[in-house]
Design brief:
Elements lengths: L1 E7 L5 H10 L3 E4 L6 H10 L4 E5 L11 H10 L3 E8 L2 H11 L21 H11 L1 H4 L3 E4 L5 H12 L7 E8 L10 E4 L20 H8 L2 H23 L4 E8 L5 H13 L4 E6 H13 L4
Parallel strand pairs: 1-3, 1-4, 2-3, 4-5, 6-8, 6-9, 7-8
Length: 300
């Protein structure tokens, strides 16, 4: 059976992800207590089902401790189990809860030692939830949704669901340092010291996918040297990540604006590794830039 477990921090987009899976033909269950996961799998097998998606989070705190063991047990039984962990920055989560005016699922908890009894604040709820789920996050594909629209998150989930089963998926993403480090990165490489096409007025509106920018960056030996260093590092340590039973490895390439240098190198690395590995290439700032342009275009 193909099993996808959606977990992570409240407000990070778990419901959006689950709806994508439901549209893709998965039998979906929201807020399932982890202790019931194995029983649910057996029930669905007896019913002839082949796809199952389950969302679980800190609301089922009492049974989270056994979840990793249950996941390994299901994999040992031959099931294809993927775990997606959605998260976001504290600032983003606070903004989302404020906009929706919904309370945090842990807000009913009483602050320890308070007299009279006082409930947890939103900031305290977020911190508590991240602490409760930290162990589960280590064994999952982490997706930082801080700068993602709902539509972009849907597309990322679709891309991951469509992947064939393999020992490890290599995710290569570009990003802008001025917008902060991505929370989902396992390896981060800073390429801000490389020649910047931004200072060429003709190249400024283009991206690292456009041929003039590609030719500009390819003309500098230091760009090729940086590419070779990153490629060599990933090639050297990729077998160790596989040996550690990692299902995903996210390599983040960052420049100042996430438009030229990081995009170019991410594309080059993805092209190289796709020959032998299962690769997904993403461009965080380009996607965000396209969303802004679309909202400003009166034809949209």
């Amino acid at each position: 059976m193909q099993i996808i477990l959606i977990t992570g921090i409240s407000g990070s987009g778990k419901s959006v992800a689950l709806h994508v899976l439901e549209d893709a033909g998965y039998f979906c269950v929201d807020n399932l207590p982890p202790s019931l996961l194995c029983d649910l799998v057996q029930t669905r097998i007896l019913e002839g089902a082949s796809r199952l998606a389950v969302a679980t989070d800190a609301r089922s705190a009492d049974s989270l401790a056994t979840l990793r063991t249950d996941i390994e047990r299901l994999r040992a039984d031959g099931h294809d189990v993927k775990v997606f962990f959605l998260t976001a920055s504290d600032e983003t989560l606070i903004t989302r809860f404020s906009e929706t005016r919904r309370s945090h699922p842990l807000s009913h908890r009483i602050l320890h030692g308070s007299n009279p009894p006082d409930r947890l604040s939103l900031v305290e709820c977020i911190a508590l939830e991240k602490d409760m789920l930290a162990d589960l996050q280590e064994s999952a594909l982490v997706m930082d949704t801080s700068q993602l629209s709902a539509n972009k998150l849907r597309r990322w989930i679709k891309d991951l669901v469509d992947l064939e089963g393999s020992p490890l998926t290599l995710l290569i993403e570009s990003f802008a340092f001025k917008h902060g480090l991505p929370l989902d990165a396992d390896l981060v490489f800073d390429v801000r010291m490389l020649p910047n096409p931004h200072y060429d007025a003709n190249l400024r509106p283009l991206t690292g996918r456009d041929q003039p920018v590609i030719e500009f960056l390819a003309s500098y030996p230091e760009v090729a040297e940086m590419y070779n260093d990153i490629r060599g590092f990933v090639e050297k340590w990729l077998p160790s990540f596989k040996y550690d039973n990692r299902s995903y490895l996210t390599v983040a390439i960052g420049c100042t604006g996430g438009q030229h240098r990081s995009v170019y190198l991410a594309e080059q690395l993805a092209r190289h590794f796709s020959i032998s590995e299962q690769v997904v290439c993403r461009h965080r700032q380009l996607d965000r830039r396209q969303q802004v342009v679309a909202t400003q275009d009166p034809k949209q």
